[in-house]
Fold this protein.
Amino acid sequence: MISSKTALVKRISSFTNAVFDDIIAVVYRIYDHIQSLETCHHSTCCIHRDIGGRRDAVALLLALGSCGVS
């Protein structure tokens, strides 16, 4: 019984991580679209592309909020 619960928790965790990764990919696509519409030199929402990973997802969302995207 314990092993089936562990397997279920692992499946849920894997699914949650996959969904979160998809959300971050969509956010990056939105950001790339904004970047293509504006030049980085004149944009107040220019963000360096070294932002990446789950820890920086919040920073990216906050930066996009300053662009009026949120």
